C-alpha cells in the first residue's frame, strides 16, 4: 500500500492490464472496422436501390450513425467510469460491442425481411457506437493510470497499437476472404464470418478484463473522498467544460487530426480506391493491411519519444510533415492509380501519422485530473469523431460526386491538419510534474 491507501501495482499486474486493455480494445475496434471494409457489399444487401451511388451513401450514413451516438456513450460510460471505476466500465463496453456485432452477423438481408433489415442494421450500429464511445477513454485511462509516471506516453501508445492491430486483422481477414472465396460465396455468407467471430469478444473480453485490479489512481481518489480529503466531483461533465476549457480545446484539435487520418486513410481510402479508381479489392485490402502494420510498429516509438522529450516536440512536426506528404502522395495516387502508388500512400501516411497517434492517448488523459479524467477524454475524443470522423467516408464520397474531383478528400485532410496544429499549440503545459508533458 502507498500513503493514499491504494495498492502499488506489481509488474505482473501492469502487464496484465496492458494485455487486457490492448486485446479488449482491439476486439472492439475489429468489430467496428470490418463494417467499413465490407461497406460496398452491405450497401448492396441492406440498402438496395436503383442508384448504386445512393445505396453506398446510405451505407456510409449508417456507418456514421454509430458515431452519432458515440458522444452519448462516451459521456455516460465515462461518468460511470469516474463514479464506480475504470474496470467495471470497460467490462460493460465489451459486452455491448459483442451484442451489436452479433446482430450484424446474423441479420437477414433486405431481400429476406424488407425494410426491417436496414432498420435493424441501424440499431446494431447504434449499440456498437455507444460501446465504442466509452472504450477509448476507459482503456486509455486504465493504461495511463497503471503506467510509471515517466513512461505514460509509451504505455498510452499501446491504445493506438490496439486500434492498428484491429485494423490490420480486419484488413487481413477481408483480404483472405476476397481472394479465397468466389464473389457469390463472399456475398451470400463469407462477409458474415468476421462479424460472427466478433460475438466471441463478449465472454472472452469480459473474462480478461474482470481479472485485473482497479486503477491505483482511482482507488487513491476514492479513498481521499471517503476520508474527506477531497470533495467528490458530482457533475464531472460540467466540471470538464467549466474548469478545463483550454484542455478541452487542445485535446479536441489533437483528436480531430487523428480521427480524420484514421477514417480517411483506413476506412474511406479502400472504398475510394475500389469504387472511384477501379482498383482490385485484393490490392486495396493488402495495402491497408501493410499500412496498419506500420502504425502498430511505430506508435510505441512515438510514445517513448514523447516521454523522452515532450508531447509537443513529437506531435507538431509530425502533423506538419503528414499534411505535406498526404497531399503529395494522394495526388500521385489519383493521377496514377496503381498498387504501388496506393501502397506509397498507405506507407508514407501511416508512418507519419503514427508520430501523432502514439502520444494522443496520454495527451487526452494527463491534462485532466483523475476525478474527471475518463469523462474529459471521452467527451473531447468522441466529439471530434462525431464531427470529423464518422461521417468522413460519407462526406468525402459526396464531395467527390458533387465536385467531380477525385482530389476533394485531400482538402478535407488539410483542414484537419490546420485544426490539429492549433490544438497542439493550445494544449496546457503540464510541466514535469507527472512527465515531460507538453513543455517545448
What does this entry show, briefly?
With 440 residues, the chain is an all-alpha fold. It has helices at residues 11-37, 39-46, 52-68, 70-84, 86-106, 110-113, 116-146, 152-180, 183-188, 193-198, 201-210, 216-226, 236-243, 245-275, 281-308, 311-335, 339-357, 360-366, 373-389, 392-403, 408-426. It is built from 21 helices and no strands.
> Care to count the β-strands?
0
* Overall tally of structural domains: 1
Mass-distribution shape: globular
Q: What would you give as the CATH superfamily?
A: MFS general substrate transporter like domains
Descriptive report:
The chain has 440 residues and is mainly alpha-helical. It has one domain (11-426): MFS general substrate transporter like domains (Growth Hormone, Chain: A, Up-down Bundle). It has helices at residues 11-37, 39-46, 52-68, 70-84, 86-106, 110-113, 116-146, 152-180, 183-188, 193-198, 201-210, 216-226, 236-243, 245-275, 281-308, 311-335, 339-357, 360-366, 373-389, 392-403, 408-426. The two termini are 35 Å apart.
Tell me the layout of helices and strands.
Elements: H1 11-37, H2 39-46, H3 52-68, H4 70-84, H5 86-106, H6 110-113, H7 116-146, H8 152-180, H9 183-188, H10 193-198, H11 201-210, H12 216-226, H13 236-243, H14 245-275, H15 281-308, H16 311-335, H17 339-357, H18 360-366, H19 373-389, H20 392-403, H21 408-426
Helix pairs in contact: 1-5, 1-7, 1-8, 1-11, 2-3, 3-7, 3-20, 4-5, 4-7, 4-19, 5-7, 5-11, 7-8, 7-18, 7-19, 8-15, 8-18, 14-15, 14-17, 14-19, 14-20, 14-21, 15-16, 15-17, 16-17, 16-21
Amino acid at each position: 500500500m502507498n500513503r493514499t491507501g491504494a495498492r502499488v501495482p506489481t509488474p505482473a499486474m501492469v502487464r496484465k492490464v496492458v494485455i487486457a486493455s490492448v486485446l479488449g480494445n482491439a476486439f472492439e475496434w475489429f468489430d467496428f472496422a470490418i463494417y467499413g471494409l465490407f461497406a460496398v457489399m452491405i450497401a448492396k444487401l441492406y440498402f438496395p436501390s436503383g442508384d448504386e451511388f445512393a445505396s453506398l451513401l446510405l451505407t456510409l450514413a449508417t456507418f456514421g450513425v454509430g458515431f452519432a451516438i458515440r458522444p452519448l456513450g462516451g459521456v455516460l460510460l465515462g461518468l460511470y467510469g469516474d463514479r464506480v471505476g475504470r474496470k467495471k466500465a470497460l467490462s460493460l463496453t465489451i459486452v455491448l460491442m459483442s451484442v451489436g456485432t452479433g446482430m450484424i452477423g446474423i441479420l437477414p438481408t433486405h431481400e429476406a425481411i424488407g425494410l426491417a433489415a436496414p432498420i435493424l442494421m441501424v440499431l446494431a450500429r447504434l449499440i456498437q457506437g455507444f460501446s465504442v464511445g466509452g472504450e477509448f477513454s476507459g482503456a486509455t485511462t486504465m493504461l495511463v493510470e497503471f503506467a510509471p509516471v515517466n513512461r505514460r506516453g509509451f504505455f498510452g501508445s499501446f491504445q493506438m497499437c490496439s486500434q492498428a492491430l484491429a485494423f490490420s486483422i480486419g484488413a487481413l481477414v477481408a483480404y483472405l476472404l476476397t481472394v479465397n472465396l468466389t464473389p457469390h460465396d463472399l456475398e451470400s455468407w463469407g462477409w458474415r464470418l468476421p462479424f460472427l467471430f466478433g460475438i466471441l469478444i463478449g465472454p472472452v473480453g469480459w473474462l480478461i478484463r474482470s481479472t485485473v485490479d482497479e486503477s491505483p489512481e482511482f482507488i487513491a481518489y476514492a479513498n481521499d473522498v471517503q476520508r474527506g480529503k477531497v470533495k467528490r466531483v458530482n457533475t464531472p461533465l460540467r466540471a470538464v467544460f467549466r474548469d478545463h476549457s483550454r484542455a478541452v480545446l487542445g485535446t479536441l484539435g489533437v483528436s480531430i487530426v487523428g480521427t480524420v487520418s484514421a477514417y480517411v486513410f483506413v476506412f474511406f481510402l479502400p472504398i475510394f480506391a475500389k469504387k472511384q479508381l477501379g482498383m482490385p479489392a485484393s490490392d486495396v485490402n493488402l495495402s491497408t493491411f501493410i499500412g496498419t502494420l506500420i502504425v502498430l510498429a511505430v506508435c510505441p516509438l512515438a510514445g517513448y519519444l514523447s516521454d523522452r522529450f515532450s508531447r509537443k516536440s513529437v506531435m507538431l512536426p509530425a502533423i506538419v510533415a503528414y499534411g505535406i506528404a498526404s497531399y503529395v502522395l494522394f495526388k500521385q495516387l489519383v493521377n496514377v492509380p496503381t498498387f504501388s502508388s496506393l501502397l506509397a500512400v498507405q506507407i508514407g501516411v501511416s508512418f507519419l501519422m503514427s508520430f501523432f497517434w502514439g502520444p494522443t492517448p496520454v495527451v487526452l488523459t494527463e491534462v485532466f485530473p483523475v476525478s474527471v479524467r475518463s469523462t474529459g477524454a471521452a467527451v473531447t475524443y468522441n466529439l471530434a469523431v462525431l464531427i470529423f470522423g464518422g461521417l468522413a467516408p460519407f462526406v468525402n464520397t459526396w464531395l467527390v460526386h458533387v465536385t467531380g474531383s477525385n482530389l476533394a478528400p485531400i482538402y478535407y485532410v488539410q483542414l484537419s491538419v490546420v485544426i490539429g496544429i492549433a490544438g497542439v499549440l493550445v494544449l496546457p503545459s503540464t510541466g514535469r510534474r507527472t512527465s515531460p508533458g507538453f513543455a517545448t
